[in-house]
């Protein structure tokens, strides 16, 4: 989910993160559906009220503020090495590119996990667009444990051993929707 591009430290808050050398990788949703881009979670609330309420009350909804509050050192919200897991779509086309440029893409939100949802929002009845946002449906012949393993792995792209030593898939219960 997170691009494998090399991360680079930034020290100038006025420089849009995107304008610095940083890969413009296509997210798998963008590979499948050219033109898909990020819209932010406010667009999801009216149709997915439950998922939105769960997300809003989770720690994911203030992940960017956590960087703003960080001290020793401070200004971590301008540090690409930190931002990558605390926003939407950093490093992907149309993803987070700075707090002024893309204020709606701060924090860990729906599209941090589901991918860029613009085509689905514009055309919610399109089944191919919907399916692209949920890669965790059981594959033919796949058992439940394997499916859960795939979800767990998607969490651990951010909840890795450096950043969450207490990771356990039980945490899904705290954000299930
Ligand atoms: C205008 C209504 C509408 C909006 C806005 C909307 N959706 Fe949906 N979405 C639907 C409908 C209808 C479905 C299919 C029924 C269901 O799963 O609830 C769906 C399904 C989904 C699914 C499940 C897909 C699957 O096949 O399992 C995901 C994930 C999803 N939406 C994410 C989002 C995200 C993220 C946003 C905001 C960026 C969003 N939706 C905005 C109507 C909407
Ligand atoms: C894009 C990166 C990213 C992904 C993917 C991600 N998380 Fe998180 N998660 C975070 C960050 C960052 C925080 C810390 C937010 C804060 O406190 O500011 C967090 C915090 C949490 C918390 C609250 C703190 C805790 O550890 O109890 C839960 C629960 C959680 N995540 C569950 C999940 C689950 C389950 C998945 C997979 C379905 C997942 N996360 C996927 C980045 C991510
Ligand atoms: C690979 C993804 C990833 C990167 C990179 C990352 N974080 Fe996080 N961060 C997380 C996750 C996941 C959590 C939630 C961990 C938990 O609940 O125990 C988190 C939680 C936090 C928290 C709140 C919990 C705490 O430990 O007090 C702070 C502060 C934080 N990160 C700051 C940073 C800073 C500063 C950087 C850059 C040096 C950074 N993060 C880089 C994924 C990441
Ligand atoms: C931390 C990652 C993460 C975040 C954030 C997140 N989701 Fe999900 N979402 C998932 C996963 C994983 C599943 C699949 C769960 C399963 O199949 O058991 C899922 C399932 C769904 C489904 C399908 C549910 C069903 O009945 O099949 C919808 C719709 C959805 N999410 C919408 C949203 C919306 C809207 C937001 C933001 C308000 C959001 N999600 C935020 C990871 C996330």
Describe what this molecule looks like in 3D:
The protein starts with 27 loop residues before the first helix and ends with a helix. It has a domain at 17-135: Flavocytochrome C3, Chain A (Flavocytochrome C3, Chain A, domain 2), CATH 1.10.1130.10. The chain has 177 residues and is an all-alpha fold. It has 9 helices and no strands. It has helices at residues 28-32, 49-56, 63-69, 80-83, 110-114, 118-122, 127-132, 144-156, 172-175. Bound molecules: heme C (HEC) (4 copies).
Provide a concise account of the structure shown.
The chain is mainly alpha-helical and 177 residues long. 32% of the residues lie in helices and 0% in strands. The chain is globular.
User: What is the number of beta strands?
Assistant: 0
SSE arrangement, N to C: HHHHHHHHH
Distance between the termini: 20 Å
Number of helical elements:
9
Rounded average pLDDT? 88
Q: What is the percent of helical residues?
A: 25-40%
CATH architectural grouping of the domain at 17-135: Orthogonal Bundle
């Amino acid at each position: 989910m997170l691009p494998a591009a090399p991360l680079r430290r930034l020290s100038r808050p006025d420089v849009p993160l995107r304008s610095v050398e940083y890969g413009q990788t296509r997210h798998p949703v963008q590979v499948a559906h050219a033109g898909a881009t990020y819209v932010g979670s406010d667009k999801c609330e009216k149709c997915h009220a439950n998922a939105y309420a769960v997300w809003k009350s989770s720690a994911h909804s203030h992940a960017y503020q956590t960087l703003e509050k960080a001290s020793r050192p401070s200004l971590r919200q301008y540090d690409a090495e930190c931002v990558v897991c605390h926003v939407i779509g950093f490093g992907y086309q149309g993803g987070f590119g700075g707090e002024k440029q893309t204020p709606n893409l701060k924090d860990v939100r729906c599209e941090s996990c589901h991918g860029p949802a613009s085509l689905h929002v514009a055309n919610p009845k399109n089944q191919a667009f919907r399916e692209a946002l949920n890669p965790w449906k059981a594959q033919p012949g796949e058992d439940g444990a394997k499916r859960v393993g795939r979800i767990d792995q998607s969490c651990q792209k951010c909840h890795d051993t450096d950043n969450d030593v207490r990771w356990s898939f039980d945490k899904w219960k705290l954000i299930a929707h």
